[in-house]
Design brief:
By secondary structure, the chain is mainly alpha-helical. The chain is built from 19 helices and three strands. Among the domains are: 2-54, Ubiquitin-like (UB roll) (Roll); 63-158, Receptor-associated Protein (Up-down Bundle); 274-363, Type II secretion system (T2SS), domain F (Receptor-associated Protein, Up-down Bundle). It has helices at 25-34, 47-53, 57-62, 68-83, 88-98, 102-116, 121-126, 129-132, 134-146, 149-204, 212-247, 249-259, 265-286, 291-301, 305-319, 324-331, 336-348, 351-371, 373-412; strands at 2-9, 15-22, 38-44. Strand 1 (2-9) and strand 2 form a beta hairpin. Helix 10 (149-204) runs parallel beside helix 19 (373-412) and helix 13 packs antiparallel against helix 14.
Length: 413
């Protein structure tokens, strides 16, 4: 793709100029016409000028990648532009000129270039599946096929807002427990490296048998001081090994299944995942996506390998001619109330609306559980902190108390 400098007149007859990327001069002319500009002069920019305009390697390294918030803003803007009837090439040209984030500008340039070559919007977005995801691209494809692209953009914006809201609330609820756990870990390291060795020298002068708690603390501190390089290397190797295992299909499936059964947070993860499934399934069904195809995409949307396998199990059962409610019951992840609502929706033909109701129900329960997450974790943290402080106090001060009692006994004798 080359860079072309252009001059033209806008709708008010004013002379305007700029630069655009395209494969040919005709591509630049088409883009200008879509922007409402009548081209007067188009010429290729020299390669040296193009290279001078490119970012340095340091700027590329420091570039902030496209985030979920950027995709949300893009979706909302595309909904407004489509609703206003703005041609799609003109819409992307406007978004590109108004964006201030380099990564977003490059993304919009690539999408607009693909559209300029005659690709559909879904095919252009599919070149960036890591950013948009399979569900987003499939919904755009359905919107193009059914002529409901504006409505699809609105639904996708609502879907992305819900996803972000759940993530932010979970992060907010977990921020305090994580901070406390990090502080505890740092305190334990400092005590074992700087504090307990000082007491060890003091206790060594007693020439007396120390309590078992004290011996345990001293032994653990000496072990950390001796093997701390191996501990660091072992921790890094273990973290990398766990990360590599979780990236495998079997490892991800095992972890996704295990985290649904974790105390306190497991129920929140399950309900949030099922809410995501219900909303995604309702959105795809309402947009006209075939049932089997919709479940295939939704299985990738839930971001949980275990739940995704159960959704694929539903899809396989439906392909064999079984009812949705029976296939949902066979998965073993839905509550009886939800199964009843799915059955009623299947019988009345109002499955879409009832799926939205299921999503709303799970979202409300998730919200309620997240609000009580900190309150549920605090007693556990306080108990752990209390036990650690008690062990430390007994291990350090019990020998001093014994020494004081022995000294008083000798003095009275």
């Amino acid at each position: 793709m080359a860079v072309y400098a252009w001059k033209g007149r806008n709708s008010r007859g004013e002379m305007v100029q700029g630069q655009l990327e395209a494969f040919t001069e005709n591509g630049v002319a088409d883009q200008l016409i879509a922007m409402g500009v009548a081209p007067v002069h188009i010429a290729a920019v020299l390669v040296q000028e193009k290279k001078a305009a490119q970012d340095t390697w340091l700027q590329r390294l420091q570039r902030v990648p496209v985030a979920v918030e950027d995709v949300m803003i893009f979706t909302r803007q595309m909904y407004s532009l489509n609703k206003a009837g703005v041609p799609i090439l003109r819409a992307f040209a406007g978004l590109e000129s108004s964006s201030t984030k380099p990564a977003v500008v490059d993304l919009l340039k690539d999408i607009r270039s693909s559209l300029d070559q005659g690709r559909e919007l879904s095919a252009a977005l599919a070149r960036h599946q890591t950013i948009f995801g399979a569900f987003y691209i499939s919904m755009i494809r359905v919107g193009e096929m059914t002529g409901k692209l504006t409505e699809v953009f609105l639904r996708l914006n609502e879907h992305l807002e819900f996803e972000r809201d759940v993530r932010e609330r979970i992060k907010q609820a977990m921020r305090y427990p994580i901070f406390v756990m990090i502080a505890m870990a740092v305190a334990i390291i400092i005590l074992n490296i700087f504090v307990i060795p000082v007491f060890a020298k003091v206790f060594a002068g007693f020439h007396a048998e120390l309590p078992i708690i004290t011996r345990g603390l001293l032994g653990f501190s000496a072990w950390m001081l001796k093997w701390w390089p191996l501990l660091i290397v072992g921790s890094v190797v273990l973290a990398l090994a766990v990360r590599s295992y979780l990236r495998t299909p079997g490892g991800r499936y095992a972890w996704d299944k295990r985290k649904l059964k974790l105390p306190i947070v497991g129920e929140i993860i399950l309900k949030a995942t099922l809410a995501r499934f219900a909303r995604s399934f309702a959105l795809s069904s309402q947009s006209g996506v075939p049932l089997v195809q919709g479940l295939t995409v939704v299985a990738q949307t839930v971001d949980n390998a275990y739940i995704g396998s159960r959704i694929e199990q539903m899809r396989d059962g439906i392909e064999r001619g079984e009812s949705i409610s029976r296939c949902a019951a066979a998965t073993g992840v839905f509550t009886p109330v939800v199964l009843q609502m799915i059955g009623v929706g299947e019988e009345t033909g109002e499955l879409d609306n009832l799926l939205f109701e299921i999503a709303g129900m799970y979202e409300r329960e998730t919200d309620y559980n997240i609000k009580g997450l900190s309150a549920a974790i605090e007693p556990i943290l306080l108990t752990v902190i209390g036990v650690l402080v008690l062990l430390l106090a007994l291990g350090v001060f019990l020998p001093l108390w014994n020494l004081g009692a022995a000294a008083q006994g000798r003095g009275s004798a």
